[in-house]
Every structure is written in structure tokens, then in C-alpha cells.
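Pinned message: reference record for Glycosyltransferase 2-like domain-containing protein
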Amino acid sequence: MSAGDRARRLAGRVARRLRPDGDHPAEQQPAQQPDGPAPWERVRDSGLFDRAYYEIQTGTAFPDEGAAVRHYLRRGGPVGLAPHPLFEPEWFRPEGWRERPDALLGYLDGQAGDPSPWIDEAAYVAAHPEAAAHPGRAMGHFLEHASDTTPVPAPYLHQQLPLAEVRSRMAAIAEEGQRFRAARTARPRGPWDESADGAFLAQWAEGDPVPPGADGAPAVTVVMPVRNRPEQVREAIASVQAQQHRDWELLVVDDGSTDDTADVVEAYDDPRVQVLRREHGGVSAARNAGIEAARGRWLAFLDSDNTWEPLFLQVMLRYLEAEGRRAGYCVVDQGETEDEASRYLCLDAGLDHLLVRNHIDLNSLVVATEVARAAGGFDTTMRRWVDHDFAIGLARQVEIGLVPFVGVRYDHSEDAADRITTSEADYWQWFALSNSHLDWDAQRRGLPERRAGLVSVCIATFEDWAMTTAAVESVLAAADLVPEGAPGADVEVVVLDNGSRRGVAGVLGSRFAGEDRVRVRTVPCNLNLAIGADVAFHESRGEHVVFLDNDTQVHPGWLPPLLAALEDPDVLGAQPLLVHPDGTVQSAGLVFTGAQEPPETLLAGRPGADARRLGSYPLHAVSASALAVRASDVVDLKGFDVRFVNGLEDSDLCLRAVDGGERRFRVVTEASVTHLGRGTEGRRDRVEGNLRLWHERWAGRVPFSELGLLDDLGS
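Predicted structure (C-alpha cells):
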């Protein structure tokens, strides 16, 4: 199955959830007007429904226009899908699109509102009075008279965009959104009919033999890391010896066992079973040693507490050789589960899904040795989720598809205390995902290419476009007030859409289309604030960067004082005064209390005038809700630590920057930013984990008390 086929298969899963067949009595249907056409007929005949555009969003083809419209009214509208590239339900009805999903019918009925950022209803009618009487209102009038080359009358555009280009841009956003949505909703686990494996196994268990390796090398090398598991390793070795395919070598990599595990392996009277003794270095280093020593053309991996079915290697190798594949994985039986529907790991998916969650069990994988080596093996800096990281690296090089049979069975010892791939904090999953988005070595090489004088404002957002739009608009408006050529006049805004719903990407993409100073990038899933900020930084091009929360609005003149502070080489970064909408202080920096705890917010709740009297002052840490820094310093630090999940990533970044040196951050109260403080969804979900990680790093190293700061400043 090709990558395109697999993407369509994933899309089909979403399409089935939005399937057009049958009635849905539980769903609220738009009311039909007395003695008038049915709602679906009104939409169909309005000229405001673009079937092709809607089909991109659903990932399915409808038999006719009517079926597509009925599906939109019943299923698509309630989940925020758009009927046309020029109509955004959330823009037209920002407060009630969920409760009243019939936004297009509301527009046709004359309800107030602009159909999207592309069309200003009042301005268009003022320019074309006849549009007031058009049944499709301003949008319908425009579409009736426009050709592909007609500029769209968007009030925000700094340059004209023809209708054909707008359609193309919105189709690209829709296609990406549908692909990401398919990846987010696909589930790795599900039911599997093992009785159907017979035909597949009969086809591939017999046939042409797998070619042997060159110069007497085996066809496949099996790598098995082990530590202090003498009994379990016997069972695992037995499952390899029971393979019908006999041309293999087994490299048991002993990861510094303190018992007789290595001796047990060495006692085997089978020259194909070899032991590699190593000092304890972790599972990744152990597997890498096996990859380096492998002689086989193919690689397979088996943990010491799992077993293969006897036909596993035979079928996998013959299938991959015959199909010209470089990697593949089989179905995994996870044993008895509470829900039989989630017993098997059996999703056929590719890189898109891997960038959301893992669906490839390493024990089920067979990969060409040269591909595994080219991928760089396993990341030894990670203590968990290394399998996921490795799978992503492979999928970036070759297509990895499901080989449809059960070849691996678990023994349910995942939680054993001595298992070397578990018992580590869940934050490593974010490390695995971040590796696929971040390349700090490339960022270092690119530092000379960053534009002098350009300030890149990086905003990560999740499930919000309203506050984010206001934040971006405030940055651009403030920059427009700075004299050309002066510091702070040259800005760009990078918005990182952290895997939000379709409407967020649709609104942001249309609102800032044609604005050269704004770029919007969407990632497949919510990567949290730290990764989101780091990814936004990777998209930036300026020598200076400002990390800015999406629920902020900058004040005129905010940026030049921050840049002036950065002219001092001893200043690591500058924070403006963060104030609430009522003018009271939200944050005037972060201060340490002397306890071995994260810092507290300075002057919170005090009148803004109290803070402004202090001018500018140094601190060990400041808030990253609005933080100006040099791009080179961000690269030196490799950005925010992605293991922090929506909390403490800013104080950790600051302490890493300050650690062992005399440079400090500064709060510049001459610059101010309103912080609405509405926060990101899930902001407080990982408080305990963040505190644990913070203490692991900074316990005993927290700066002395800064509570006397106000006295020192004469306050």
C-alpha cells in the first residue's frame, strides 16, 4: 500500500465518522420555512456551497450536490466544516457556531455578520448597492460576477489576490487540516480477526527462499537488549530459535547485568546466538551496539519479555523482499485486555500518524539494516519513547507499512520494575515528537542568514483565533507607528497553530493572507507551549525574537525599549511590564524566595504605576509570556526544554541561560503589554510532573532570595 493509499485509508476513517449515508434522527436539523424550499435546497441553489471544497474537508466523494449539502447541514456544520472557501462559520458567528451550526442558512436569512475575512459585507454593499437585494447577499453577488482572475474584496489585504489563488490557498489549508484530523482520530489499537490470517500466511510462508547475506552473512540480524532478566531471556531466545526461517543471527546485548544473564546467553550451544557485553548505558545504547555489529541485510528487534510467532521472520522477510519494501511491521497481540476491541496493535498508517502518536511496536518491525543506520539509530539522550522516535526517523526515509498478520505476542510484563524501557516519566513522549520538528544544529548553521534588524514575534496558539488575531494585529499596528528604519519597525509574526480545530487554521489563514509580515504554520497535534514556541522559532528569520502569548495585546512603543536593553551584551533577555486589562500588574518579572522552589511573580496585583517607577532592573528569571531575546542565545540554549508541559518552561530557560555566569535578564517597565490571562487549554494539567522535573534539575541550585529587590530599588 502506497503512502497515498494509506493517507486515503486514514481519511476514510474520518469520512466514515462523517458518512453521508442514512438519516441521523438525533441530530438537530435546520428548520424548513413554511411553503418554502427545504434547507438543503436553499443551500444547494444559493451558489454559496462549493462541493469540491467540502469534499476535501470530509475526505470523501459524494454522489451528487444534494448529498453533499445534506451531509454538511447534518454532520459537517456541527463540527465546524466550511461550505465554501469564502465562508468561515466561526468568523460569521464567532460566539455561537457550535450551538447554531446552520451559519450559512443564517447568512442567507440576512443575519448580521461578515461571511469571512475575505469579504466585508457592509463595504461590499456600499460599493455594489445591488448586492443588498441579491439572494446570496454580498458573497453571492461577488461570486456571480467574478472570474478566476477577479481580486477578492478582502478588507485586510495589502495586496490583491485573485479568486483562483484564494481558492487554491484555502483548499491547501483544508487538505492539510483533513490530513491532520485523520491522523489525530485514527487509533493504533483495535480488533483483529486472526482467523483471516490463514490465507495471508499460506501465501507468504512458502515460496522462494529469502536470499542469504553476502560473504556468508545471515539474511537477518535480531537485536535483543537485556538487563538482569535470565529467565525471560531464555523464552525470548527460544522464540527466535523456533523461527521457520533459519538464516539469522541473534545479538543479545547485555546492558551491564549484575546477575548471570550474560552467562545464561553464552551457555547456548548455538553459534547463531551471540552475546555482546556492555557497561550499563540504557536500552538505546544497547540497541545501537547491536545495529553497529549486525551482519544481516535486515534487522529485527525483540525485547527479552516478548515472543514471536514461528512464522514471523519467514513471512516478514519474504513479503518485504517480494514487495520491494525497506521496512514493515506486523500486527501485535497485546493479550487479554478489558476491551477486546483494543486488544491488537494493528493500524496501517504512516508518518502523518507517527507525528501524533506511535503505532509501531518495535518487536513487530523489520527494517533494512542500512536504513536503520542511516536513520542514526536510537537517541541515547532519551530514557523513554525511544521506539517512537526511532520509528519517526525511519518513516522520514522510507515507507513503513503494515504486514497484515499477528506475529508478536506480549506477556503483559510492561510494568515490571526491571524493564529497561519503562518506569520513566511521560514527558519523554514530547521529546520524541519534538525531534521530528526541531533541528538545532541546522538553526546554528542558519544564524548568519538571519536578517539584521528584523524582529520575529513568535506566537503559539491552540484552539483560538480571536485572541491570536488581536495579538497579531496589535504587533503590526505598533510596528507601523515606528519610523521606517528605526529599531522595532521591521517585524514579522510567526503563528504556530498547535493542532487546533479546522476553523482556527481557516480563519488565521484567510485573515492574514497577503500580509507578508505574518506566516501561519499548523502542526498535526497539540505539541504544548514549549515545543510550539520552539517550532515557531524555527520558522523565524530575525536576529531578535520575541516569544509572545496569544492572549496578549502589545501597547504602542513596546518594542524599541526591549531592543535597546538587548544592546547591552550582559542582558540575556528583556521582559516588558505585563498588565491586566484594568492596568494592574500581572507580572513585573519572576523572583526567587530563597526556598528551593520555582520563582514567584513580582508585584502581581499592584498598580502599574508602582512598577513603572522602578524603571529597568535585572533578574535571574522573567516571564516568557512576552520575552525579547537574541536568536543566537535561543540557539545556544536549544530553546525551551520540551519536557515541560505548559508550565515552568520559562523559568527553566532563564536559569539555564544564567547558570554559572554574570549575565541577567531585565524587566523594562517602559514597555508594556496587556496580558488577558485566559491561558491555554490544559495549562494546569501537568503541574506535578513539571514540578518534579524542575526539582530534578534545579534542586540545590536555585538562586538566593530576591525578596529584597524592592528595598534595593528604593520602593
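Pinned by admin. Summary line: The radius of gyration is 29 Å.
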